[in-house]
Each structure stands twice: as structure tokens, then as C-alpha cells.
Amino acid sequence: MSAPAPSSTFRARRFRVLLRTVAAAACCGLVLSGPAALAAPAPAHDAAPAGAAGRGALLSAERLYTLDTPRAVTAELTGAGFDADTVRYGVAAYRLVYRTVDAHGRPTTASGLVAVPLRTAPRLHAVSFAHGTGSHKDDAPSAQRAAFVSAPVIAHASAGAFAVAPDYLGMGTGPGLHPWMDIGSETTASLDMLRAARAFAPRTGHLLAREVLVTGFSQGASAALGLGRALQSGEDRWFRLGALAPVSGAYDFGGAELRALLAGELDAKSSVVYAAYTLVAFNRLHAVYADPGEVFRAPYAGTVEALFDGAHTGQQLMAGTPGTLDELLTPHGRALLAHPTGALDEALRTTDAVCADWAPRAPVRLYMATGDEQATTENTGRCHVQLAANGVHAPVVDLGAADYHGSRHLGSNVAATPRIVRWFAGLSWH
Fold it and tell me: Which of 130, 150, 272, 283 is an S-S bond match for 223, by CB 3.0 to 4.6 Å?
């Protein structure tokens, strides 16, 4: 059953939100404008049985919308700026809420998006998509209908996959603050989302195959590698890694990415936001500084932490930060990012190990765009070299000068999505 058709008032409001989102995204990566408009959900809502417990336990499943024909899916994808050549099926979209653990291993809940192809064979492969950076809790797949952050999920589902996208901790309906670029919690949230999706799949008439096709963009590229490693190491009894296709990641965040950011090689405003997010988010978990005045100049020392509380929009984040790193950072703050020490150095060693300390046994392709203004392509080069040193052939797919509203970084997600859909669809298992 299709979701109710939106009213003219809703359509106008959604168009205004889309314009704000595009403007924010083009300026500053995937720091979106939120809260995004979402079509009124259909009334179907399934709660988990009483007593459900354990990581990945499904707590609720809410149908958000249905694109009941390939034509409807095509309209949604092209409206979001994505290619629709791979569309074969209509799609039903659901928000799942499930049990997981936080960055310290304590029980919590998280949400995510599941997109299910309509009128397909019962056995499907899961595709896990990890999204890029957002600042507002609603900059998450389950909160945005076929917008930039959720369009890849819809694209994979419309090609015949059971598409799964975690919102991450603290995003979507999840409680608390988002532990940005924390590979451990991104991995557990992604793995537990897969488990919840497997529990939910029979309600849609499907069963999930063992092999999971894993992809992700920007922040989500590192998250994808973390999930791939967990699947290969047997952290789940059913799922295993089928293929891996990260896009434009900051795989060497503490080295290549921060170096390029501080050297002025990347977009200036994006660099300001990412520098601020790095210090604020890592400080929450690792006590990087005792007082914000140590690393941030006045007046930002008194305001910047609150901008990353999950309630501020992308526009508010950009308005509340300066245009240059010199205006934002104290000499100590810049030195700490240039030469991390102590708790920050230790945390970044984990973040930067996503390509270095394992050898994927499934097919891998690394996607990047020439001239990426936010994630230096040196990241992809280093990942390729590190995987090669471990005996892994991981071809680099250069998407060229991909563009999405003036951003090659965002453009890489748009350009890579149909290529990854086709690659995944052509894989087979024995």
C-alpha cells in the first residue's frame, strides 16, 4: 500500500527544505540542514515482542513510505540528483529501532532505514550503506525521504537488494550525542542493524542470504570497512562479508586528512567544521582537552561544543563557525591536530587502522573523485597501498571530476552509487 499523497502545503515545505539542504551540503560536505521533511508514515507499526533482548534485537518497525512502482522510484531518485538507470522494482521503506551498545559498551538503542524491493523473490542479499557526516539528528537515512543521505539506500533496494542503513548512535531516534568518527561504535551499530533487519525480513516475505554487500560514503566509508572486518572475523553467526565498496573515505584521518586540512589544501569552510567536529567529538570520548579555551579561540570557545549537540541544523553550524582555521583554533589547538599526542593520538590510531590491520577475503573496490575538496584523495591512495601490503588487490575507481551542486566530494557519492549497484548485482557466490 502506498503512503498517502502529500498535500500541496507539504510539497512546498519539502521543496524549501530541499533547497536549504542542498545549500548547506554544497558548502560543507554532508553537514546537512535538518530537520528534514519526511512524508507522513503509513499507519503500519510493528513492535517487538515483550522480553526481546540482546544486541540487534528488533524493538519496532514503522513503515515510512512506499514507492510502489519503478516509475515512482525513478522520480524520487532523479529528484534527489541520482541516476535511476538501475531501477527495476518499487520500494517500501521502514524505520527500525533496535538494541545495540554505545561507545563504552553500555546498552542503548539506535535506529536505521530498511528499504525493501517489492514483488521480488523471497531470498535477497543485504546491502549495508553507511552514510556521511551530519550535524542534526535528522541528517540520517531513516529521517529523510530519498534525499542525498537516503537515495543510495533506495537505489540498492530498487535494483533488488534488501538495503539497510544505520543512522548511527545518537542520530535518527537514537538517544544521546553522536560519537563522530568512532569506528568501534559505527561498527557495532551497523552490525546490530543488520541483525535487526534479518529479524524483520520475514515480515516482508523475505529471508536474507549470508553474504552482505557493504558500502559507505565519506564518514561511512570508514564505517563500512569496520563492518566488513567484523563480518569477516565472524562476529555474527549468520552474516559474512560478500563485497566491500567504500567511497571517498578519510581512511588516514589523523595523517593524510588532517594534514591536508591544516595545509589549506581542502575547502576552507569544510575544514573549519571538520576541525571543530574532530576536537569536540573526540574530546567527549577521550578527554582531549580540559577546557574548550585551550583549543578554540574566543568567542567560539564558549559556543562551538553546543553546535554539535544534534539539535543544531547545518545552517546554524555554518553560521556559528568562522571562515578560517586561524579564526577558530588556538596555537595549541592547531598543534594538537597537526601532531596529535596523548588520548587523541591513541584514538586516531584506531581510526586510521581501517585499511592497515586486516586483509579482506571478499572483493574490494575503492571509489574516489579527482579533486575531492573535502576528503583528500591521498586517503584512498594510502588505503590502496595498505591493503596491497596485506596481499589484497583493491582497484581504485576514479570517478573523475564528479560534481553535485559544486562539490566533487558529494558528487562522488552520486556518481559511485549506480556503479556500485551494478557491481554488486553482477557478483555471485557458490
Answer: 130
How sure is the predictor about 239, in pLDDT bands with cuts at 50, 70 and 90? Answer: very high
Confidence of residue 147 (pLDDT cuts 50, 70, 90): confident
Q: Are strands 58-67 and 45-47 parallel, antiparallel or unpaired?
A: antiparallel
3-state secondary structure of 31: coil
Q: What is the pLDDT of residue 146?
A: 66
Quickly count: other Cβ atoms within 10 Å of residue 43's Cβ. Answer: 10
Mean pLDDT check: name the lowest of 45-59, 87-101, 300-314, 359-373.
45-59
Strand order in the sheet with 162-166: 45-47, 58-67, 91-101, 107-117, 162-166, 123-130, 207-217, 240-247, 366-368, 396-398
226 inside domain? yes
In this prediction, residue 144 has a pLDDT band, given cuts at 50, 70 and 90, of confident
What's the average model confidence in pLDDT over 404-409? 95
**Quick one: average pLDDT of 57-72?**
97
Rounded-to-10 torsion of CA 96, 102, 108, 111:
-10
Contacts of 170 (CB under 8 A, 6+ apart): 137, 176, 177, 178, 179, 310
Confidence bin at 367 (pLDDT 50/70/90): very high
Within a domain: residue 358? no
Q: Is residue 122 part of a domain?
A: yes
Rounded average pLDDT over 150-162: 97
Coil vs helix vs strand at 391: coil
Domain total of the chain: 2
Domain extent, residue 100, equals 8-251+364-371+378-425
Query: Are 238 and 330 contained in the same domain?
Result: no
Task: Clarify whether residues 56 and 187 are in a common domain.
Answer: yes
Based on the domain organization, do 111 and 239 belong to the same domain?
yes
Dihedral sign (CA 346, 350, 351, 353): positive
Give CA angle at 32 (29, 36), nearest 5°. Answer: 155
Q: Are residues 140 and 244 in the same domain?
A: yes
> Does residue 359 lie within any of the structural domains?
no
Please tell me whether the peptide bond between 299 and the residue prior to it is cis, using omega within 30 degrees of 0: yes
Q: Where residue 181 sits, what CATH number does that domain have?
A: 3.40.50.1820
Predicted pLDDT at 53: 67
Return the DSSP state at 407. Answer: B
Contacts of 144 (CB under 8 A, 6+ apart): 32, 36, 38, 138, 150
